[in-house]
């Protein structure tokens, strides 16, 4: 059976029944049908949140299809609950781009899913729509001001960095010209679209502490420059009030359930290769205040999601994970050992062994944070016993705890061994994590420390444009912000063709972007796209709905 068929075998419990398990009454819920609800921000208990144990799920460098972090997150959460722990999964919302593209949905898989799977993978509670509308309202206000004769701020259209957003993979919208049509069309200029998950509005949602903070961050969004060279912000357009108003419901985290009928909070969904790649601070803190354990995830490999989870999210939120779960798959290790994608389902112990340096790199870089690491071998039906034993024995020789994660096939029951190791590891974490860099470091020092410590690079090179932009960042007073490096997820380096554990490479920063509202600088390494394209055969072609409203083809 596929994921959707498995999800449809389980009858969801009414959401008020799920909420009751973590002490939330019905009158505190804002219902979105029978099985979804929004949670008010007054449920956040800062003091209790400090007592909860935070478990971060990350992964080795993934194959194009991903390695099942969400599946492991949900399975581990159900496993902890089966062990008698009060655990809540706190994860990101799926984007329609991957759902209809190549990766499919992001609600987990097999018997480790959140439900209702169809709703979560499609429009859910409308959060992405609100983010998109807030983003595009700012675009409309800006273009309106550019053509205004009476309230013109003197914005130089050639310097505008802000783009419109849409939650879809559509390469035709990457670069375009707006404002055509003469006087009625406005002022022509070059621009484009980002996918909604790449919008700074998404990043701001996931970094905000309340509605007032959200509004203040919106005002700080850097748009571009005036003709005299001075910066223009969203606050100069008085955009923040209306933008925050559009987000009044989206700022509230969403409550659903796992197939094991355990509570799961889903909120926000920035991509880790172009943003911080984790769910909202609000959702994480809410979960920590409602349960004893929170199992959360960070996008792509640990070089992207986990690095940003520690250095950006955890630092801003005042949180420190108690344990890190590193998701490993046999197919990914064989891929990094040089085996072609089409042959990954066939056993190959030699290729697996050749791919182990990639695993070792992630163990080494995660070790720099000083938080205990547990390896979860996410099991696929094609994995051989010899391959599974090889990984477990390798981890044992490295002194790293490891267990098979069989949540896809067996749900929480298949993750109990992993759960025991995670509880044991979390109990050992008595000190906060060690950040990779100090906020007082220069931007160049921050980038270099991440490149050398996390990526294993020998150094960093900057384009002429990037060097020029560094001076601008200093002039604007943003040099003390953390860095959110945008690079490929397909390699530890910034070259997607360098699989395994590359050596003696340099990271090239071609340009910088400023996400002043989100609170970080974005150094862009290599060619990275903020508007993906669809594959040759999009997943959308398999999605259908019959006359009774039954959906098929989602995975």
Written description of the protein model:
The chain has 555 residues and is an alpha/beta fold. The chain folds into three domains: 3-125 and 260-428, P-loop containing nucleotide triphosphate hydrolases (Rossmann fold), CATH 3.40.50.300; 128-246, 2-Layer Sandwich (Domain 2, N(10)-formyltetrahydrofolate synthetase), CATH 3.30.1510.10; 443-525, Formyltetrahydrofolate synthetase, domain 3 (Roll), CATH 3.10.410. Helices cover 35% and strands 17% of the residues. Strands 1, 2, 3, 4, 5, 6, 13, 14, 15, 16, 17 and 18 form a twelve-stranded mixed sheet that branches. A three-stranded mixed sheet has the order 19-20-21. A two-stranded parallel ribbon has the order 7-10. β13 and β14 (263-266) form a beta hairpin. The mean pLDDT is 95.
Let me know the largest β-sheet. 12 strands, mixed
Oligomer: single chain
Q: Percent of residues in helical segments?
A: 25-40%
Number of helices: 19
Please state the second-level CATH architecture of the largest domain: 3-Layer(aba) Sandwich
CATH class of the largest domain: Alpha Beta
Low-confidence stretches: none
Count of individual beta strands: 23
The CATH superfamily of the largest domain is P-loop containing nucleotide triphosphate hydrolases
Overall structural class, as computed from helix and strand content, comes to alpha/beta
Number of domains: 3
User: Using only CA atoms, what is the Rg?
Assistant: 23 Å
Mean pLDDT: 95
> What proportion of the residues form beta strands (DSSP E)?
15-25%
């Amino acid at each position: 059976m596929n994921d959707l068929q498995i999800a449809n075998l389980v009858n969801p419990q009414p959401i008020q029944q799920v909420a009751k398990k973590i002490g939330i009454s019905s009158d505190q819920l804002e219902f979105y049908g029978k099985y979804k609800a929004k949670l008010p921000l007054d449920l956040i208990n800062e003091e209790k949140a400090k007592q909860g144990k935070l478990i971060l799920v990350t992964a080795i460098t993934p194959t194009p299809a991903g390695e099942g972090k969400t599946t492991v997150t949900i399975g581990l959460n159900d496993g902890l609950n089966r062990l008698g722990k009060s655990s809540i999964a706190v994860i990101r919302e799926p984007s329609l781009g991957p759902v209809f593209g190549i990766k499919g949905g992001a609600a987990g898989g097999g018997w480790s899913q959140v439900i209702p799977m169809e709703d979560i993978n499609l429009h859910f509670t409308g959060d992405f729509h609100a983010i998109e509308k807030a983003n595009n309202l700012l675009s409309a206000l800006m273009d309106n001001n550019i053509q205004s004769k009476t309230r013109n701020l003197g914005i130089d259209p050639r310097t505008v960095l802000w783009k419109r957003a849409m939650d879809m993979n559509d390469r035709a919208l990457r670069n375009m010209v707006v404002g055509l049509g003469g006087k009625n069309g406005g002022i022509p200029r070059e621009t484009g679209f980002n996918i909604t998950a790449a919008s700074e509005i998404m990043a701001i949602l996931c970094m905000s502490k309340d509605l007032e903070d959200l509004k203040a961050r919106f005002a700080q969004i850097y748009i571009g420059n005036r003709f005299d060279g001075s910066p223009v912000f969203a606050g100069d357009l008085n955009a923040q009030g209306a933008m925050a108003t559009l987000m009044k419901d989206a700022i509230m985290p969403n409550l659903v359930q796992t197939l094991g009928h355990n509570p799961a909070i889903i909120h926000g969904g920035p991509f880790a290769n172009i943003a911080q790649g984790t769910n909202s601070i609000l959702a994480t803190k809410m979960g920590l205040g409602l349960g004893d354990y929170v199992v959360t995830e960070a996008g792509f490999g640990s070089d992207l999601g986990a690095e940003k989870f520690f250095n950006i999210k955890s630092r801003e939120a005042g949180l420190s994970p108690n344990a890190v779960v590193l998701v490993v798959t046999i197919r990914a290790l064989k891929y990094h050992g040089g085996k072609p994608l089409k042959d990954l389902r066939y056993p190959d112990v030699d290729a697996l062994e050749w791919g182990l340096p990639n695993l070792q790199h992630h163990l080494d870089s995660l070790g720099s944070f000083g938080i205990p690491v547990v390896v979860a071998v996410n099991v696929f039906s094609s994995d051989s016993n010899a391959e599974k034993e090889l990984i477990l024995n390798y981890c044992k020789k490295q002194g790293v705890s490891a267990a098979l994660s069989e949540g896809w096939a067996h749900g929480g029951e298949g993750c109990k061994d992993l759960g025991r190791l995670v509880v044991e590891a979390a109990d050992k974490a008595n000190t906060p994590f060690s950040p990779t860099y100090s906020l007082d470091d220069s931007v160049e020092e921050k980038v270099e420390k991440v490149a050398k410590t996390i990526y294993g690079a020998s150094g960093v090179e900057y384009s002429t444009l990037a060097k020029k932009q560094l001076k601008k960042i200093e002039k604007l007073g943003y040099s003390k912000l953390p860095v959110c490096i945008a690079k490929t997820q397909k390699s530890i380096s910034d070259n997607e063709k360098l699989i395994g554990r590359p050596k003696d490479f340099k990271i090239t920063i071609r340009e910088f972007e400023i996400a002043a509202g989100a609170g970080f600088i974005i150094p862009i390494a290599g060619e990275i796209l903020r508007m993906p394209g669809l594959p040759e055969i999009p997943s959308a072609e398999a999605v259908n709905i019959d006359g009774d409203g039954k959906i098929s083809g989602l995975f």
